[in-house]
UniProtKB/TrEMBL annotation:
<protein>
    <submittedName>
        <fullName>Nitrate/sulfonate/bicarbonate ABC transporter ATP-binding protein</fullName>
    </submittedName>
</protein>
<keyword id="KW-0547">Nucleotide-binding</keyword>
<keyword id="KW-0067">ATP-binding</keyword>
<dbReference type="GO" id="GO:0005524">
    <property type="term" value="F:ATP binding"/>
</dbReference>
<keyword id="KW-0813">Transport</keyword>
<feature type="domain" description="ABC transporter">
    <location>
        <begin position="4"/>
        <end position="230"/>
    </location>
</feature>
Length: 230
């Protein structure tokens, strides 16, 4: 029933000295439908490295990541990533940014505009479709990031420190709106995996928290959060 399962994944990076440094020691984890999982750990503990392996962006040095039981490199995984730095295309309008992943999938123009407009509405960007990213505040830019990630209806939505570049209030608002969408079942994804170094954020958002230790990153704890979300 797991959507994504990592088995004994490890990551080493080459060093100029030719010594390899191990960033992730053998790690198992899985993501099942219906859960928000937070990956919590200090800076440098390997959170982004693990996220890149889980999404297929980077290949483990050892072990394997499975997508519905198939090695991820041989499957059509349907995931999206929201980045800390938004990673929007500055030369495209808000609408064009959100349409971009649909265009990459070969969806026809009218259909992708329809879907992108609907998603912009969902994330509270109604009326901003013709703006360019540089005209928007950080919070609004990250809304575009969410819309662009969600428009393909990913099975798992990955987020790498999505609120870290925002001021405290903006982050708080965006976080609670996100949770509201999730609990209203208006967010077109089955699971959310969020990387954060903020323990409060992990506790507020997640159903399950995985804590990564440092030197080299390994899972220290994996526990359910027994809080009643509002
Ligand atoms: P986190 O996301 O928890 O801050 P990272 O996964 O970004 O951790 O990095 C973990 C460690 O691996 C850090 O020491 C970082 O400098 C190193 N690292 C990450 N990516 C690479 C890479 N492509 N090449 C070499 N070292 C890397
Ligand atoms: P792959 O394993 O598929 O070769 P990597 O996991 O090495 O891919 O990812 C390479 C990415 O990591 C590049 O985008 C690079 O800019 C970034 N990177 C390189 N060095 C570091 C570092 N020390 N810390 C964090 N990221 C790094």
């Amino acid at each position: 029933e797991a959507i994504i399962r990592a088995e004994r994944v490890e990551k080493y990076y080459a060093q100029p000295s030719e010594n390899r440094i191990q960033v992730i020691s053998p790690t198992d984890l899985s993501i099942v439908p219906g859960e928000i999982v937070a990956l919590l750990g200090p800076s440098g503990s390997g959170k982004s490295t693990l996220l890149r392996m889980l999404t297929g962006l980077s290949k483990p040095s050892a072990g394997e990541v499975y997508w519905h039981g198939q090695p991820i490199s041989q499957s059509e995984s349907n995931v999206s990533i929201v980045f800390q730095s938004f990673a929007l295309f500055p030369w495209l309008t808000v609408l064009q940014n959100v349409e971009a992943p649909l265009q990459a999938k070969g969806i026809a123009p009218e259909e992708r505009t329809r879907r992108a407009m609907k998603m912009l509405d969902t994330v509270g960007l109604d009326g901003f479709q013709s703006a360019y990213p540089k005209e928007l505040s950080g919070g609004m830019r990250q809304r575009v990031g969410f819309a662009r990630a969600l428009v393909v209806e990913p099975e798992v939505l990955f987020m790498d420190e999505p609120f870290s570049a925002l001021d405290v209030l903006t982050a708080e608002n965006l976080r609670s709106e996100l949770l509201e969408l999730w609990h209203n079942h208006t967010m077109p994804t089955q699971s959310i995996f969020i990387v954060t170094h903020n323990i409060e954020e992990a506790v507020l958002l997640a159903d399950r928290i995985i804590v990564l230790g440092r030197n080299p990153g390994h899972i220290r704890t994996d526990f359910r959060v027994n809080l009643q979300h509002p």
